[in-house]
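We were asked to recover a plausible sequence for a given structure. The inputs and outputs are reproduced exactly as logged, with field labels preserved.

PROBLEM: sequence recovery
POSITIONS: 92
GIVEN STRUCTURE:
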């Protein structure tokens, strides 16, 4: 039997992601990526700032620390890219 799951509301969050005992600041996106797909599956993506390396098979602990904005459907990938750059700037 699968354990029950609760996922925070769709949106973009500031987050802290721990890899083992090392914390990284991250921009977290929860949603269906309306800019790139219609009615696709909900995904959870964490963009780790200042991380280099490989996380395959690692267990990550993700804490949402602050809600930044809703998921948006941008008119172009360029606008999405700029929004993500602002998100990363906002998490400091
Ligand atoms: C910080 C952050 C914010 C994001 N915000 C949005 C958003 O507002 N709208 C959207 O459609 N996708 C958003 N995305 C998801 C991007 O569409 C996704 O990362 C990109 O398309 C790459 O997806 P792929 O790795 O599946 O190719 C966000 C992703 C990140 C990391």
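RECOVERED SEQUENCE:
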């Amino acid at each position: 039997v699968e354990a029950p799951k609760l996922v925070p509301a769709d949106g973009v969050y500031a987050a802290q992601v721990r890899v083992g005992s090392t914390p990284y600041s991250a921009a977290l996106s929860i949603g269906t990526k309306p800019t790139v797909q219609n009615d696709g599956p909900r995904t959870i993506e964490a963009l780790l700032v200042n991380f280099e390396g490989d996380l395959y098979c690692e267990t990550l602990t993700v804490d949402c620390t602050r809600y930044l904005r809703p998921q948006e459907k941008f008119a172009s990938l360029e606008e999405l890219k700029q929004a993500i750059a602002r998100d990363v700037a906002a998490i400091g």
